[in-house]
Design brief:
The complex is a heterodimer of chains A (114) and B (112). Chain A is mainly beta and 114 residues long. Helices cover 0% and strands 53% of the residues of chain A. In chain A, strands 2, 4, 5, 6, 9, 10 and 11 form a 7-stranded mixed sheet that branches. In chain A, a hairpin with a 5-residue loop joins strand 7 and strand 8. By secondary structure, chain B is mostly beta strands. Chain B is built from no helices and 11 strands. In chain B, the strands form 2 sheets. In chain B, strands 2, 4, 5, 9, 10 and 11 form a 6-stranded mixed sheet that branches. A 5-stranded antiparallel sheet of chain B has the order 1-3-8-7-6, with no helix packed on it. The chains are: A mainly beta (114), B mainly beta (112). At the A-B interface, strand 4, strand 5, strand 9 and strand 10 of A face strand 5, strand 9 and strand 10 of B.
Amino acid sequence: KAGVTQTPRYLIKTRGQQVTLSCSPISGHRSVSWYQQTPGQGLQFLFEYFSETQRNKGNFPGRFSGRQFSNSRSEMNVSTLELGDSALYLCASSLNGGQGNEQYFGPGTRLTVT
Amino acid sequence: GEDVEQSLFLSVREGDSSVINCTYTDSSSTYLYWYKQEPGAGLQLLTYIFSNMDMKQDQRLTVLLNKKDKHLSLRIADTQTGDSAIYFCAETSNSGYSTLTFGKGTMLLVSP
């Protein structure tokens, strides 16, 4: 069974631009969560989607948004990029996002904002 | 609030046992996880334990949970150079969701 895939793997953007990252979960998984990883703040939860609905959200500004499609694939969007948005963005999939669900992570998208 | 803390660095020799420690503050934590991250890679789920258990063994990995002290440890037996990586402890609270709260990670360096 294929793992979680994320595209692109690397991205360089300029301040003020916007970016869209994509995540394809493991087949049969319906929950997708996004995390931001930075050296200073570590791993922080962004949001979780299940059945095309955002079900849970972390403490990030409205510039960070996402969506999920009917095939469970998810995208996240960051608008008006800031230097501090440079990070590794990880997505994780699980069967239904319930407690005890094993979450499997993709390789991440490394975003650099200049 | 929720907080998960880990020591930042551990160095061991190949063949020794490694013990990575983690403490958490959320008394409603239900599941506790260990993930491994190698350079340039995502997170690999190693093992997890439910909060009503005190020990779980999986091949070379042993997880010990002291719920009273909110202390979790991961023991790796016969540590190999391929075990060199960053290890993250994470917990899910009793919120009904699988949202993970992570520690800052422990870098394990295994020398030959």
